[in-house]
Amino acid sequence: MTGQEIMFIILALIAICCASLVIVLKRISHRVLSMAFCSFAIAGLYFLLRAEFLGIIQIMVYVGGLTVLFVFAVMMTDHRTTTFVPERSKVFKFVSFIGVGSLLSIMLIGILGMDLPAGTEPFIGTAEAIGLELYGNYVIAFLGVGILLLAALIGAIVIARKEADEQ
Amino acid sequence: MSAYNANWSLMTPEIVLMILALVIFTLDFMTGMSRNKPFLGRLSILSLLATTVLVAVFNRETGQIGDMFVVDGFAMVLKIVILLGVAGVIAISMYYVDRHRDVYQGEYYSLLLFATLGAMLMVSSADLITLFVGLELLSISAYCLAGFKKYNGKSTEAAIKYVVLGGTASAFILYGMSFVYGLTGTTSLVDINEAVPTLFADYPYIMTMAIMFMIAGFGFKISVVPFHMWAPDVYEGAPTPVTSFLSVVSKIAGFGIVLRVFFVGFESVYDEWAFIFALLAAITMIVGNMIAIVQRKVKRLMAFSGVAQAGYLLVPVATMVSLDMTMSMITFYAVAYLLMTLGAFAIITLVTEDTEDDALTSFSGLYQRAPYLAIAMTIFLLSLAGLPITAGFFGKFYIFVGAIQAEMLWLAVIMIFTSIVSFFYYFGIMKQMFMRDPKPNDDQTLSVPKPVSAVVTISLVGTIGFGLLANVLTNYFNNLQWFF
């Protein structure tokens, strides 16, 4: 087993454990923290894949930006635990567990059974290559994302804002 | 391709609509906190109509900017359908927001316009990334719109269910796309189409899995069984004009992306996925129509009716004889679906708002209260059920003939059988309108606001007109060059 594989297994385990903790943990601040660690581990995976620029962006945007945004969102909105439907029965949980488990095993069979040649190109994720693609080929998608963020912002403000007293 | 030597004039309608949407948004916060701004609604309709004209002028010729943005017959027709659909939705909304002062009008209209922009991007791109960005722009705007009545528990519930399930569906689409990208090394659908036959020979399991993931995700967006669970709850909870947006525009745009991805990107392996669509179409038609019978609320009934209609629209996808015929059938039925559903929703909005109740019984005695609306609603329902002299009848007949030509007799039989089942629930509404007396505490006559009656009249003329003169549209569609 090469060093790269050992690193991959460690990082992948951290990513999966932290991602599950986001769902399992009860307090929202703990969830945000485990999400940050999950993003860190994914950034590590990018470094392993020789996509350094993407790895750094992942740390800056997800660990730095997004986590802080989550903390702000937690601080600024009042949240109560509400439920729409009663707690699901044991049978229901068991059936959904079986369903998700079989989906996972179907996927694993496919992915593990795949035999792909290793990539040989050394510099695939450089800032220059990404910049040329993003502002050359994919510029329409890039502009579309701008509008997407604006729409998300407007929608979030409308739904989350506290009403001012109207006189 | 680089951004500097592209023919940007192809994007004129999108750019103009984007600017107009931003202008409307800006006008809203320049005019203060007042909640009643009817001029914003009128401006939104005007900008949509202006964009429609631009589409008709600028998108006549086929052209493309790389594979990122393509203009062809398919894109042009679906863009016009979507733009007119949103214009109708906004006309209905103007009545709704007038009665609900807790809805922020400027944000409401600009989100609708942004969603339209996303839908336009969805139907005119041949690249997975741009298609996905368009899809998310539409979806995220729709999630917000569903929760616009934030002090109404049902609306909030609808928005949360929609955002969680919709996010899951997007994840499935993206996961399927990432497998395709990983194996082909390209996001352009044209290049993918060239690469898939050999990939299917080498990696049949993983390619089938990728296609299944994408079908599951797209199936959610167009609400086909078994991915339809969200539709009744979201349709019921969302504000009624938003429901009409989801069931008309969102669904047609969803079909746009499905057709684009599968008929441009995976056309060379048609035999590998056609039967999946045939199965989906069959169970969608059966389950949608069966569950609709037992519904007691009109918005839930329309949700299941919409599920069933999606099943009819999937039939031509599964029974392709020639690409042009299939596209012609789907677009004709999409036009018919737009007209009849939009008209029906205009009346449903008016009636449920007037009686403040969305049970089927809110329609009781509509014929005595507003005879014109009752007759128009009857025509829309007959068209949805597929009875003659309506556009819905011809659309269904066209699809039926196509299924027989492709020798998919079992699918054609299921289609006829489920259409007969659908008469029961559509006639349930008619029975309420004509054979029940109005409830004693309702007004004797229902006054019809102008925008709603305009939508009803235009839809009515279209439904009957395309029913009688269907060949005008089909001749035009048959001579169109669908894909670039």
TrEMBL record, chain A:
Predominant cellular place of this UniProt entry's protein: membrane
Record's subcellular location: Cell membrane
TM helices/strands, residue ranges: 6-25, 32-49, 55-74, 94-114, 134-160
UniProt entry keywords in alphabetical sequence: Cell membrane, Membrane, NAD, Quinone, Transmembrane, Transmembrane helix
GO cellular component, one term: plasma membrane
Record EC number: 7.1.1.-
Signal peptide: none
Pfam families: Oxidored_q3
Catalytic activity line of the entry: a quinone + NADH + 5 H(+)(in) = a quinol + NAD(+) + 4 H(+)(out)
Gene Ontology terms, MF aspect: NADH dehydrogenase (ubiquinone) activity; quinone binding
Membrane topology listed for this record: Multi-pass membrane protein
PANTHER family: NADH-UBIQUINONE OXIDOREDUCTASE CHAIN 6
Similarity comment: Belongs to the complex I subunit 6 family.
Described purpose of this protein according to its UniProt entry: NDH-1 shuttles electrons from NADH, via FMN and iron-sulfur (Fe-S) centers, to quinones in the respiratory chain. Couples the redox reaction to proton translocation (for every two electrons transferred, four hydrogen ions are translocated across the cytoplasmic membrane), and thus conserves the redox energy in a proton gradient.
Name by which UniProt lists this protein: NADH-quinone oxidoreductase subunit J
Taxonomic placement: Bacteria, Bacillati, Bacillota, Bacilli, Bacillales
Automatic annotation (TrEMBL), chain B:
GO CC terms in record: plasma membrane
Protein's UniProt keywords contain Translocase: yes
Record's keyword terms, sorted: Cell membrane, Membrane, NAD, Quinone, Translocase, Transmembrane, Transmembrane helix, Transport
Pfam family, one: Proton_antipo_M
Range of residues in the leader sequence: none
GO terms for MF: NADH dehydrogenase (quinone) (non-electrogenic) activity; NADH dehydrogenase (ubiquinone) activity; quinone binding
Membrane spanning residue stretches: 6-27, 39-58, 73-96, 108-123, 129-148, 160-183, 203-230, 242-263, 275-294, 301-323, 329-351, 372-394, 409-430, 451-474
Keyword S-adenosyl-L-methionine in record: no
Top-level class of the enzyme under EC nomenclature: translocase
Enzyme Commission number(s) of this protein: 7.1.1.-
Membrane topology of this protein: Multi-pass membrane protein
Reaction catalyzed: a quinone + NADH + 5 H(+)(in) = a quinol + NAD(+) + 4 H(+)(out)
UniProt-listed InterPro entries: NADH-Q_OxRdtase_suN/2, ND/Mrp_TM
Residues annotated as domain NADH:quinone oxidoreductase/Mrp antiporter transmembrane: 125-421
Subcellular location as annotated: Cell membrane; Membrane
GO biological process entries: ATP synthesis coupled electron transport
HAMAP family: NDH1_NuoN_1 (MF_00445)
Family label: Belongs to the complex I subunit 2 family.
Purpose: NDH-1 shuttles electrons from NADH, via FMN and iron-sulfur (Fe-S) centers, to quinones in the respiratory chain. The immediate electron acceptor for the enzyme in this species is believed to be a menaquinone. Couples the redox reaction to proton translocation (for every two electrons transferred, four hydrogen ions are translocated across the cytoplasmic membrane), and thus conserves the redox energy in a proton gradient.
Subunit structure: NDH-1 is composed of 14 different subunits. Subunits NuoA, H, J, K, L, M, N constitute the membrane sector of the complex.
Name under which the protein is recorded: NADH-quinone oxidoreductase subunit N
Organism listed in the record: Texcoconibacillus texcoconensis
